[in-house]
Amino acid sequence: MSAVETCCVVTVFESLQENRDESGSDSLQTPRLPPAHKCLSCTGVMILNDDRGSGIVLCSGPMFSHFLISKENTFPDRQFLLRDRFSNKLEIYVQHTGKAVVPAINHDCEKIVRTCSKLYKQQNIATLKAELIMVVNCVEFRTAFLNLFKQSDKWKFYSSEGDCDLTEDCAFLSWFAVLGVPHLHESKHEGHVRWESSCVLERGWEVFACGSPFGSLCPDLFMSTLSKGIVSNLAGEDHALILTDARCLPGTEGGGLFLRKGDCDFLVGVIVSPLCWKAAEWIGLTLVCSFHLILKNVVQSLNLCSSLRRFIFLVPTPLNEALPRKGQSTAMQNFPVVVLVDSGKFWGSAIVLSSQLIMTCRHVLNGKTGVIVRYKMPERYVTFLQTIVRLKEHLPDIFVPTWASSYKPGEDVYVIGHGVFGENCGPSVTSGILSRVIESNCEPVMLQTTCAVQSGASGGAVLILSGIALESPVELLDIITTSYPPLSLKY
């Protein structure tokens, strides 16, 4: 299945009547229409669709927390939650592109989903009832998340239930729902999703995000929307936490992040939050969890629960078709070295010009006569002269950048800087285009790009590739001086 073919929409709500009788079996009654604000939706990824009678969909877990019978003792270290921990009035429906199938759902149920979607006629959208198998916690992602995102930084994230800050509201961000969808195999998209371990990922690799912006709102318009970007940064065990500059909108949480090799798409991650803010600053990055680590936790949970072991055969196996393994790629080997400059109260970035010279912005130095430079090793103390800093010690294995001789608006560019996370996660890289060149006396004096730039990236590098491949030689265009986030994008 391609990235587009794996995309679906998951809608969840509580019916206004019991849907299970006293024996626990499903009632044949049609659930009553819920109030519109009770419907929640997000994107899902079809990870299996074959001829054995069952399909499996993976989606974001936070919206299911609204339907927990009790949240006590649920967080933070539970490995999984079964269906009986959630309301017995819970109704789940999956919408995907394709011809409607039989037996899917009756017209009354479909009307409910359409009403939740605020849509009365959907073209080429099949609606199927789903069952909740389990909600599983990706513990590796949670560990990386807590190490990287500090509450003191006033982080806020968008999830299916709206914006949440870094308190108990975010406790479910590392959880993912596993849904069984009978008769999904009758649709036109069959087979296992191709996937690859996040271990192979490197910063700078091109990736595609696929989701349904705004969830169940007009899925025939928004379902399977693609966004291209690069891997901006990685953290945690086996790269459990992935950050990408592929721009995503609310409702795409639960969607897939894909690598493309030839004509094949490989699922490497699941979108956790499409929008993130740090101290009211929108950072322009999408938060993603490693797919193979989600699968690892799903398999472990299935093995611990005897009643669910029958689902193990549905878990897709890896298809490592011609993808490089970790350590074989030369991505970013020709990029200039960008170090972190710590002036005490503030930090910024700097471009290494030689083994003893770095260049940064004056405001990064904060008026100090001595700052600390951090580069993959213990602290090194330096002094400065204006914006050119001379190190007291040599930095080893330094790639000296070449300055660009021309500036062409519309060209692809990259920026590298220690924005957002400082020394905790290494420099981040984002992509965009050179949107404008400002000249004075026929000389370029300022450049504007569409790259996502965050506080802390000042002093970093703006680069252009001399070839198509990421491994091509690069030229240094400029130094990052500031970002101007639109007020409308502030939280």
UniProtKB/TrEMBL annotation:
Alphabetized GO MF terms: serine-type endopeptidase activity
GO cellular component, one term: peroxisome
Modifications after synthesis and translation: The full-lengh TYSND1 is the active the proteolytic processing of PTS1- and PTS2-proteins and in self-cleavage, and intermolecular self-cleavage of TYSND1 down-regulates its protease activity.
EC number, as in UniProt: 3.4.21.-
InterPro entries: Peptidase_S1_PA, Peptidase_S1_PA_chymotrypsin, TYSND1/DEG15
Keyword Iron-sulfur belongs to the record: no
Subcellular location: Peroxisome
Keyword terms: Hydrolase, Peroxisome, Protease, Serine protease
Superkingdom: Eukaryota
Entry's Gene Ontology BP terms: protein processing; regulation of fatty acid beta-oxidation
Role this protein plays: Peroxisomal protease that mediates both the removal of the leader peptide from proteins containing a PTS2 target sequence and processes several PTS1-containing proteins. Catalyzes the processing of PTS1-proteins involved in the peroxisomal beta-oxidation of fatty acids.
PANTHER family xrefs: PEROXISOMAL LEADER PEPTIDE-PROCESSING PROTEASE, SERINE PROTEASE-RELATED
Family: Belongs to the peptidase S1B family.
Protein name: Peroxisomal leader peptide-processing protease
Organism: Scleropages formosus
Organism ancestry: Eukaryota, Metazoa, Chordata, Craniata, Vertebrata
